[in-house]
Design brief:
The complex is a heterotrimer of chains A (609), B (188) and C (416). Chain B is built from 5 helices and 5 strands. Chain B is of the alpha+beta class and 188 residues long. Chain C has a two-stranded antiparallel ribbon. A two-stranded antiparallel ribbon of chain C has the order 3-4. Chain C is globular. The chains are: A alpha+beta (609), B alpha+beta (188), C mainly alpha (416).
């Protein structure tokens, strides 16, 4: 087989691995009559042959040229194209040269080369790659003088009215305009007239700031609000160089998905109020992890510098959150280094909490717990805990010898996209780990037990009983011993005899199972604040303090290994095998609404990704 | 790698017994010593020294009048003709600084400020002079012509904290610089 | 021995060792720094003085920076005395003392001046008027190699170890040349008492400047004839002293470019300072020995010594102190010569150093002994024997040179 024919070896879902047998068959003259051409092989699979920069590939029919190039690992510069949005083709940056086989005159057999491909007649004008679809025997050139000249020209037009205020622009460092003007720009401007002035620093919504001068009219934000968020408040006004992005009169860009427009904005026109002027992106370290604000388990990237989280952005996962996330979840990280954060173990003496050491706090907890009969001890765990932590909570209950173990349910309104009604991120995991159908069931009996005095000690793991679980301050005062692990100070902690500071979601490792049964991994982006410990370590140390045994679990991997051996759904898995995209481990039948929308639009051919 | 073989020079008898070279050496070193003692060291004139050697005797004699144009002293922030602080806290100097001496906290300019349209300025701008190596890369990288290496070289302090120049101190050293490219003039 | 004598000896020890020789150490450090500075067109330490302005006066008194060595010493005392965990402690602590003590002990045989006399009591300006002066010096000075070797070994670290090994090899090699080179001198004087040697030079002219005090047994011609072996001996002795004291150009045991600090890399504070002191003390003693043996010791020369010895106020004959001044002047001049050499001559390579010691100086010193013996014995010998001796000497010299030359030829490198 000739070297320059490269069958696609399944890099994406839409291309297949195939081997041509055309040449092999042509070696035997008798076979020529029934000879199959490359197009026939492709057509059998509903695909077409496309030559990109001299190499033949196969793509499904209807694939956009830009997507074909992307799958062939060739980057075509673009602004307006987004795989999850429709393609209006208005930035003109993705210009490529296209070629088709010449149409034979009637009766003429098309010419074919040794491999059965027809020669390509190149069109002397460029076409945009984002709005055209591939067809059989098509040729695409993504480089060459024509293409490069065109890109240079487009860049020059885009930069005519650009204010060039990169030093103050938050997008600097992740700005497509910067990157592509370095790669495809001229370096100097020939424009000598006055630049068009447009509104700057426009307050278009509670979380988004608009700078119209930086806008290159790619319309990604407009399409996102219309097609994905379903709240078409953005649009263009004026014409020509005066085209201005604006919000609908009397409306605000206040959708719970508005910050996604800042993510997809290729320039600095839309910026996040929360992240505005906080830190330059080139200082930030990216950590892939997952969101814990609801059962969807949105995949996110945490951007940190030093031990401070500066922002959170969605991470593409087509099985969970596509490329989006709700604002409410995205901005819920400031508490991590906030003022109410617990940073050291506290023990109550009198009615005041005093700082203590970990060893002392754990030892006194263990001593007090041992004084109380096992059946009078209850554990209230949290649906925000990871599988590992829940497993250890179950082990702790076994160590104490109590059967009172329950989680606190947390339900709120769902939206039609990503936010689930179950605001606990690991309900599915809790069901699997605790091997029960309803991990929340025991809570009412524990509450009743506390009230009637049959439960004397409570271990509360990461939950605020007063605010979330229907307990009252008087209930908690009845307890002989109350231990709480918590990230933040809260009313329950006020009554706790021992308060242990635990780690926030960005500070710990572990795994969770989302509502659709996908096992996903949390990664540590920052170190726990102060003396706070990872929750699984707190549980392990508490168990060791109770049993007096020697520690054998040094890493969270050790815990996961035990889970994999004990729970069938996890068998054969390790933390590293989960991967950044997660892995489905159980079938729940839950559908994430946003994905259903997206699949429908894809099926309708509106989008590619 | 090619190996270059060097031929050692053939030495004659006089060179082999080494004494000629020794005496030449003594003459050379003694010439320098005597010239130094007479206050006529070679190069003392151009280096503006006392003559006893080419060293400048510091507190009495100073470089100040002899500093070359290109001298790189302490880095400092400058304001423009209208008294606006030129720095927009783009943090490029913080990024480029090889010893990580610069620390900037950016902030937004409040809307009632006359320069509100610039949008961004540093809230804090600290240069740790115990770390600064006077390389001048901050000056080179600055897109706003806001940071310059001035000719101040007497940077001293009794505590580490004294050696950290804050924003106020940096503007004191830097002062005003006129005739620079002004991106934020009225046309903009 | 009565109490007075013991008291006098104690006074001499304290005065000559701790008030005369030991202050020379910081002084030579100061000279080292200032002299190297002016050679290199610098200024050197010229600031440290007496801070009168602290006491309310208007100006400080700079003293040309002469207080600098005191400040340096104070600094070294106040520095943290750090002992690394990996060293062999007992030897590590012993080594600095082993370097500095032998150097100071050798002081005791050096005659600092002619005897002084008071109330009819004559006292020699030497701590121990030994009849085996030079031998004592060699035997004690060669102990200081233990200090360096122990320092290198006990530091338990690469560079000091290499420094120690180098030092051992170097000192052993040069001690041979050192010892052999002064045999002619001792033959000439027929005495091993340094005081007597100096007295002879004062009376009959310095070994290298025999221009006065001629008499029947010390004719000018005989003295001039002996000048040649004396000069060779002087050359070998001086250069060997450089090697013995680990001074440039033979400071391979502590060369910074190769060994960081050599044998004292792991030392700090006062322990380091003791090595430093030992090196400079050895330099002072070496200079004193050279002056004593070859340059007339405390002698002023030109027949003036007899006059000086007779100077007195009442019963107090103080000429000895003038001679002592003369000795110190010569000593300082020679120390300056040491310094000049250090800042002029580049460091030798180690193989060159070893070759110089074993191939050149050892043989040259041996031949020189032969030559000197011939010259010294000549008056009592018949002409024929002198002739045979000369011929033998020439043949021996030629043979040694030939052997040295042949041994230098390197075998051709065979290449496959």
């Amino acid at each position: 087989m000739a070297r320059h024919i490269r069958a696609r070896t399944a890099p994406g879902p839409s291309s297949t691995s195939i081997r041509y047998s055309y040449q092999a068959m042509s070696d035997t003259p008798s076979a020529t009559a029934e000879m199959k051409l490359p197009k026939d092989f492709a057509a059998e699979k509903g695909m077409v042959n496309v030559q990109i920069d001299g190499i033949w590939h196969q793509f499904p029919k209807g694939t956009r040229m830009i997507e074909a190039c992307r799958q062939a690992k060739i980057t075509v510069p673009h602004y307006c194209y987004h795989p999850k949005l429709s393609s209006p083709g208005n930035c003109r940056m993705c210009l490529v040269q296209m070629g088709m086989p010449p149409r034979p005159t009637p009766g003429q057999e098309p010419q074919r080369d040794d491999h059965g491909f027809e020669p390509i007649g190149w069109i002397p004008r460029p076409v945009i790659a984002c709005a055209n679809t591939v067809s059989e025997n098509m040729g695409i050139r993504t480089s060459g003088e024509l293409v490069e000249k065109c890109r240079e020209g487009v860049m020059e037009f885009l930069l005519i009215n650009h204010p060039l205020d990169c030093p103050i622009c938050d997008q600097a460092g992740e700005c497509r305009l910067q990157e592509q003007s370095v790669q495809h720009g001229r370096g100097v401007s020939r424009f000598i007239d006055m630049k068009v002035k447009k509104p700057k620093n426009v307050d278009i919504g509670p979380r988004i700031r608009l700078d119209d001068e930086r806008c290159i009219m790619c319309s990604r934000c407009i399409r996102f609000m219309d097609e994905v968020a379903g709240d078409a408040v953005l649009g263009f006004t004026q014409r020509g160089t005066h085209t201005t992005l604006t919000v609908h009169p009397d409306r605000l860009l206040d959708s719970n998905y508005s910050l996604n427009t800042a993510d997809i904005c290729p320039v600095g026109a839309l910026t996040s109020n929360d992240f505005r002027f906080q830190m330059r992106v080139w200082f930030l370290k990216e950590t892939p992890t997952i969101d814990v604000n609801c059962g969807t388990g949105t995949n996110i990237t945490v951007w940190t510098r030093g031990n401070k989280i500066h922002r959170i952005t969605p991470r593409q996962n087509d099985e969970v959150n596509s490329a989006w996330m709700p604002d409410s979840h995205r901005l819920n990280f400031h508490y991590i280094d906030g003022t109410s954060r617990l940073t050291e173990p506290l023990t109550k003496s009198g009615d005041k909490h005093l700082p203590s050491s970990w060893a002392d706090a754990l030892e006194s907890s263990a001593a007090q717990l041992k004084e109380i009969p096992a059946h009078q001890v209850a554990i209230i765990a949290s649906g925000r805990m990871t599988n590992e932590e829940l497993f250890l909570a179950r082990a702790l209950a076994a160590e104490i010898g109590t059967s009172h173990l329950a989680l606190v349910p947390r339900v709120d309104a769902a939206d039609h996209l990503l936010v689930a009604a179950d605001r606990n991120p690991n309900t599915t995991g809790a069901k699997l780990i605790l091997e029960t159908e309803d991990p929340y069931a025991g809570l009412d009996s524990i509450r009743a037990g506390v009230r009637d005095g049959s439960i004397q000690a409570l271990i509360v793991l990461g939950e605020d009983l007063v605010t979330d679980a229907g307990f009252t301050a008087d209930d908690l005062k009845k307890l002989r011993f109350l231990l709480q692990t918590s990230v933040l100070a809260n009313p329950t902690a006020d009554h706790a005899h021992v308060v242990l500071p635990s780690a926030a979601f960005a500070e710990k490792r572990g795994s969770m199972v989302n509502l659709s049964g996908r096992l996903q991994r949390l990664n540590r982006a920052v170190e726990p604040q102060g003396q706070a410990h990872d929750d699984w370590e707190i549980l392990r140390d508490l168990m060791l303090a109770l049993s007096g045994e020697k520690n054998e679990a040094h890493q969270i991997e050790d815990i996961f290994k035990v889970i994999a051996g004990a729970i069938p759904a996890f068998s054969g898995l390790t933390l590293s095998k989960i991967g950044h995209q997660g892995t489905p481990i159980t079938e729940t039948g839950y559908q994430i609404p946003l994905l259903a929308n997206e699949r429908a639009r894809k099926a309708a051919g509106l989008i590619n990704g | 790698m090619a190996v270059v073989k060097l031929q050692r020079p053939k030495l004659n008898f006089g060179e082999k017994i080494y004494f000629g070279a020794l005496i030449k050496g003594f003459i050379l070193t003694m010439t320098h010593a005597v010239k130094s003692l007479l206050g006529k060291s070679v190069g003392a004139e151009t280096l503006a020294s006392s003559g006893l050697g080419v060293t400048m005797q510091f507190p009495e004699q100073r470089w100040d009048d002899h500093l070359p144009e290109y001298y790189r002293g302490a880095p400092a922030l400058v304001t423009d003709e209208q008294g606006r602080e030129r720095c927009v806290s783009c943090q490029l100097c913080e990024f480029i600084c090889p010893p990580k001496a610069i620390k900037i906290t950016p902030s937004e300019i409040p809307s009632d400020d006359p320069w509100a349209k610039v949008e961004k300025r540093p809230l804090e701008f600290d240069i740790d002079m115990t770390r600064c190596i006077y390389c001048g890369m901050c000056e080179e990288v600055c897109p706003e012509q806001a940071i310059y290496l001035r000719k101040d070289y007497l940077i001293t302090g009794l505590k580490r904290a004294d050696m950290v120049h804050n924003k106020k101190r940096l503007y004191e050293i830097g002062g005003t610089r006129v005739g620079l490219v002004n991106k934020w003039n009225e046309l903009k | 021995m009565d109490i007075l004598q013991i008291a006098i000896i104690l006074v001499k020890i304290v005065t000559l060792t701790f008030l005369v020789v030991l202050p020379l150490v910081p002084l030579s450090v100061y000279f080292e720094r200032r002299f190297s500075a002016i050679i290199q067109d610098r200024v050197g330490p010229n600031r440290v003085g007496i801070p009168f302005s602290l006491l309310g006066f208007k100006k400080d008194f700079h003293l040309f920076g002469l207080v600098q060595p005191i400040a340096d010493g104070l600094k070294l005392f106040l520095k943290e005395d750090f002992t690394p965990a990996h060293v062999r402690k007992a030897f590590y602590w012993m080594a600095p003392a082993l370097t500095v003590v032998p150097a100071l002990i050798t002081v005791c045989v050096v005659p600092f001046g002619s005897p002084i006399s008071i109330f009819g009591h004559t006292e020699k300006l030497v701590i121990a008027d030994l009849d085996i002066g030079p031998l004592f010096v060699f035997s004690v000075a060669s102990l200081s190699v233990y200090g360096i070797t122990l320092a290198g070994w006990s530091s338990n670290s690469k560079f000091p170890f290499i420094g120690g090994v180098r030092s051992t090899a170097q000192m052993i090699s040069y001690e041979i040349a050192l010892g052999l080179s002064i045999v002619p001198v001792l033959m000439y004087y027929g005495d091993l008492n340094l005081g007597t040697i100096v007295k002879q030079q004062a009376d009959h002219g310095w070994l290298l400047l025999p221009l006065w005090g001629h008499d029947a047994t010390h004719t000018l011609s005989s003295k001039l004839l002996f000048w040649f072996p004396a000069a060779i001996a002087f050359l070998i002795f001086t250069i060997s002293i450089f090697a013995e004291t680990n001074r440039m150009p033979f400071d391979l045991p502590e060369c910074e470019t190769e060994l960081v600090g050599g044998y004292h890399t792991e030392y700090s504070s006062m322990k380091f300072a003791m090595f430093f002191m030992g090196e400079y003390a050895a330099m002072v003693i070496g200079s004193a020995l050279i002056i004593t043996l070859f340059l007339g010791g405390w002698s002023i020369g030109f027949g003036l010594d007899a006059v000086v010895e007779k100077l007195h106020i009442g019963d107090f004959y103080y000429g000895g102190f003038i001679h002592m001044g003369c000795f110190m002047t010569k000593l300082l001049a020679f120390i300056l010569f040491f310094i000049l050499v250090r800042w002029t001559v580049p460091r030798f390579r180690y193989d060159q150093l070893m070759k110089l010691g074993w191939v050149v100086f050892f043989e040259a010193a041996l031949i020189n002994v032969f030559l000197a013996a011939l010259i010294v014995a000549a008056p009592q010998l018949q002409a024929a024997i002198i002739g045979i001796g000369s011929v033998l000497l020439v043949i021996l010299t030629a043979a040694v040179i030939w052997v040295a030359k042949v041994s230098e030829e390197q075998p051709k490198i065979l290449r496959a």
